[in-house]
Amino acid sequence: MNEIQEFTPAVDALPDDGLLDSAVTILRLLADRTRLAILSRLAEHQDMPVGAIADALHRPAPNVSQHLAKLRSGGLVQTRRDGTTIYYRLTNEHVAALVEQVLLHSEHTMYSTPPHHRQ
After folding, report:
1. In a domain, 7, yes or no
2. Cα–chain-centroid distance for residue 43?
């Protein structure tokens, strides 16, 4: 006689409170249209100075700079200096994947056939 075993997830598989708190902080940073647009632009262009980001988003540079400071404090972007210019880039490939996935999922909420599924 074959017994069917029920799947029960291991308690260890649940994220701990610290990890959940960190994830919530990151999601709060993404819950701003300008910050999400900045991250999306950086995902496409590797690294950019504040002025170029501001121009691409049609936003004032001081406003973009404030958003970049929040993204940097949240660990989503890093900087490098070249002379007097500071360039911003995504911290790692996980940030790029997170931004891409949230935008792709958003298409699913807006269209019966999302643009990324049309060919």
Report:
1. no
2. 9
72 Rama sector, left if φ>0, alpha if ψ -120 to 50, beta otherwise: alpha
Residue pLDDT, tens place only, 51-81: 999 999 999 999 999 999 999 999 999 999 9
Cα-Cα-Cα-Cα dihedral of 42, 35, 71, 66, to 10°? 110
Residue 104's domain is classified under what CATH number?
A: 1.10.10.10
In this structure, what DSSP letter does residue 60 have?
-
From CA 31, how far away is CA 106, in angstroms rounded?
13
| pLDDT of 7 | 59
**pLDDT (tens digit per residue) in 12-41:** 678 899 999 999 999 999 999 999 999 999
Report the greatest alpha carbon distance in the chain: 75
- Within a domain: 9: no
DSSP state of 119: -
